[in-house]
Amino acid sequence: MSQPHLFITGANRGIGLEMVKQFSKDGWRVSACCRNPENALALTQLANQNKDIALYTLDVTDYQAVAQLAKSLQDQSFDLLINNAGVYGPRGSSLDHLDLDAWRQVFETNTIAPLKLVQAFAPHVGSSQGKKIAILSSKMGSISDNQSGAAYIYRSTKTALNQVIKSLSIDLSPQDVKVIALHPGWVRTDMGGPNGLIDVEESVTGLKKVMTSDIMTGRFYNYDGAEIAW
Ligand SMILES: NC(=O)c1ccc[n+]([C@@H]2O[C@H](COP(=O)([O-])OP(=O)(O)OC[C@H]3O[C@@H](n4cnc5c(N)ncnc54)[C@H](OP(=O)(O)O)[C@@H]3O)[C@@H](O)[C@H]2O)c1
């Protein structure tokens, strides 16, 4: 393969930023998106040191901007597209405590936006050699794994995302594009908090190995390569 090309959202911090670090270190060209490049100091510093990292402003819920970016990059091919951007929403959602407006917003970011992103960029992936799309889901979206209840907002948006991923994997199979869901582990980021079990380096090292191996489309993978039941 000629120099492989990664396109990633939410690249300014947490798991997304570490993806940019590790893929660019491995020689990939990286198109990294974030909402506010002017505040993304670490990402900007990486891009300043490496001509193969390009930065783009993108709020994934601004679908007009998504379509415009896809159009402006129509001559480019992405071997791997990672939808990493995601939000947790208000903490402690429970039967007695549910913020419905927040739920709708989290649904927009975690469920609808990944579909709109793939819709806009599927041609760029289909024209590449790698032909892979990886979407950051969460084990908290697995119905089989739900032993502790609650967390209605985050869980339901990731469960619905899993269904979106499964349908995308079927709909894009004629183009040979593989689509997978990923669980990064419980990671020490702003979202995962300080009690997470692993750091971003360990999570992304595992996720990168999964994404660059011979994956099966329409599956849900843990960062260590194990399959997770939907
Ligand atoms: N950490 C964990 O333990 C864990 C576990 C399971 C799954 N995940 C999933 O892994 C992914 C990354 O998580 P993380 O831990 O790295 O989270 P994080 O540290 O909170 O970072 C989230 C990233 O998503 C971006 N983002 C949020 N809304 C966006 C929008 N509308 N448009 C563009 N970017 C947006 C944020 O950008 P801003 O800086 O602009 O807000 C930030 O770059 C998420 O999808 C998350 O659900 C994480």
Question: Would you give an account of this structure?
Answer:
- The protein is of the alpha/beta class.
- The protein has one domain (5-222): 3-Layer(aba) Sandwich (Rossmann fold).
- Helix content is 39%, strand content 14%.
- The protein has six helices and seven strands.
- Strands 3-2-1-4-5-6-7 form a seven-stranded parallel β-sheet, sandwiched between helices.
- β2 (29-34), α2 and β3 (53-57) form a beta-alpha-beta unit.
- α1 (14-25) crosses α6 (200-211).
- The longest helix is centred in the middle third of the chain and has 27 residues, at 100-126.
- The relative contact order is 0.15.
- The structure holds NADP nicotinamide-adenine-dinucleotide phosphate (NAP).
- NADP nicotinamide-adenine-dinucleotide phosphate (NAP) binds next to α1.
Molecular shape: globular
CATH architectural designation: 3-Layer(aba) Sandwich
CATH class bucket: Alpha Beta
Mean pLDDT: 97
Structural class by sheet pairing and helices: alpha/beta
- List bound small molecules: NADP nicotinamide-adenine-dinucleotide phosphate
Which fold name fills CATH's third level, the topology?
Answer: Rossmann fold
